[in-house]
Amino acid sequence: MADTAAAGPAQGGYAHGVPCWVDALLPDVEAGKRFYGGLFGWTFDEGAGPEFGRYAQAYSEGRAVAALAPKQDGRMPTVWNVYFATPDAYALAKKIKDAGGQLVTDPVPVGHFGTMALAADPEGAVFGLWQAGTQSGFEKKGAPDSFCWTEVYSRDKDLVDPFYESVFGYAGSDLADAGVDFRTWSPAGTAPGPDTAIGGRSLVSGAFPAEMPAHFLVYFNVADCDAVAAAAQRLGGRLRTEPFDIPYGRMAVLVDNQGAVFAVLQDPPQNPPEGADREETAGQ
Question: Where would I find the VOC domain in this sequence (predicted)?
Answer without folding.
Answer: 18-132, 146-267
